[in-house]
Every structure is written in structure tokens, then in C-alpha cells.
User: Fold Carbamoyl phosphate synthase small chain from Mesobacillus maritimus.
Amino acid sequence: MKRQLVLEDGTVFNGEGFGSEKQVTGEVVFNTGMTGYQEILSDPSYCGQIVTLTYPLVGNYGINRDDFESINPAFAAFVVKEVADFPSNWRSELSLDEYMKMKNIPGIAGVDTRKLTKIIRQHGTLRGAICSGDENPLEIIEKLRATKLRNDQVKQVSTKSAFPCPGRGYRIVLVDFGMKHGILRELNDRGCDVVVVPYHTTAEEILALSPDGIMLSNGPGDPKDVPEAIEMVERVLGKVPMFGICLGHQLFALACGADTEKMKFGHRGSNHPVKDLKTGKVALTSQNHGYTVKESSIVGTELEITHIALNDGTIEGLKHRSASAFTVQYHPEASPGPEDANELFDEFLSLVESAKQEDTKYAKA
Assistant:
């Protein structure tokens, strides 16, 4: 099954199709992880994107029931150098090809992913289309240049209604902007009584749930496309301890008066070094984002930079100077990736515990 990947700059890659046969359009990005393709394909933060995997062999350990980060994948397509037809792993239940056929998602193999990645690094993320090898690429390029990508990705992947994940510990309201299940697992492992709510839940609705803490999840797209979430963060800030991850980090920054901007090609992979400015410690982190908080916009706000990316110096962590709130741009729950930063969930619950002790002290007084 001949297939082609066409980029808006006129570049055309020819290859062999796998998965679904449908034609798709999306933003072409790359991920540098050596493993974890199942977690990548089920990460809602890739909503609508054509994901290039730089590791040359994909699908070799198949698909299993346990490693999904969401129930339904939201990414548009996979671009790989080689896809394994016969996976070998004791947990494997499906091949990658079988799974993508089942979910009606196309892929293209036989692509020089090294060359494609260098194009993206040089020109920035590009719109692209995966289509049949019979299509006229000139017509596809013309359509791509006229295509406006959707900006409602958070709406597409967020839960439609609130639901509980009961526990006997602290009540945490997890705002779902495209939540990875790894975040929920970390809170559940710590005994938290979690209530997951949709992205557009108001501050009043959240506070009515009597939370001990609020977590802002990861998610896809531009944080400025979710103004209702920015308003919500503004109104709950300082009332309940808060922890934000990835998109949640960016929304927190906007709510505090800072600004965000689109990166040239973003950070996507499981080996990004991040430095803690307080301790000097460097952690290897899992990341997936195409926007960043502008460092110059922090001046004059109540925000303090806590972490930076060693590769390019961009902001990777923030905390509020007076409110019990902090955020990180990377993924401390990993999945896939190293768990160097997993302790941040414990730091968050320590903030929650301190706030509860303060409330108890005032109540007794």
C-alpha cells in the first residue's frame, strides 16, 4: 500500500502504509524517545498531530492492555522508519498495525525520519498530510497552505462530565485538559480522593467540591485557546493549594499575568535534562509541549522561576511567591520516560497537608 507524506514546504516523502487507509492532515512533530510508542499514541496532548518517531524501529514489542494513557487515541498519524510486523513481548496482544487499523488511524513507514526531523528543526513544525501514493502532491500542498488547523483540541479530549476516583486521603480536584492516566495513577497510589472535572468547570463549581488541592493536567494546543480555564485559575489561586503540569503550567502562568509563545519545534521525548535552580540537581524528564512561558513576561508578576531546560534555557518550572501553588512544564508521572521527578507529587501533597494544618489551627483559635 503506497502512501506519501506531503509537507506544506513542498517536501514529499514516499513510503508504505500501515494502519488505516484514510487521509489525514495535521501538524507534523517529532518525538525522540527510544521506547514508549504506546504511551505516545495514547497521550491526549498529541491531539490532531502527525507524530514522527525518531527511533528507527517501532512496534517491536506490540500493544498491550496496560500501557495506555487514555482510552481513545487522539493523534492523527504515525511516521516511522520501520514498523515491526511480528512483535515479540510476553504482554503483547496486538501489533501496532492491527491496533491502528482498529482505531482508524493511518501510518507511513519507510520514511527517512532523520531527514524529516532535520527539516522540522530547521523550519519549525509544519502542516502535513498523509495520503495515498496516487494523489497529486501539488494539489495536496496547495490545500495544506490554505488549511487552518483546529484550535479546540482541549475540548476534544477533555472529559464531558465530572467523575470520581475514590480514595480515603486528601480530596484532589483534577482539571482535565487532556489528562494522562499516569497523573491519575500517581494520585491514586498516594490514596487521594480524586474528582476529575471537565476543562470548562468554573471556580465556583470546583470550590463547591471542597477540595484540599487542585491539579491542572497536561493537554494539547495553545493555552490561550482556553480562556475559561485561565479565568478559573485566577479565581481559585490562593484559596486551595495548586499543582500544574505541562498545559496546566502554561495556564497558571497566564493566570498570573505572564505570557506564552509557540516554540519552533517544541520538546517531545523522554530524555530532556531539567535543572532545579534551588538545589542545582538535574533530572531527566519526559516532555511533550509546543508552547512555553516567555521568560521576559515573568518580570513584575508574583511568579518565581524554579526550573530551566538545559538544552535551550526555557522555563520548566514556576512557583507563586505568596500562594501555595507551583507548576512544571515537564511530566513528573513519566509514562513513558524516567521517574526522576516523581517526588513532585509528594511535594504537592505536603503543601496540601500544611494548608490543612493551618486551617485546623485557625478553626481551634
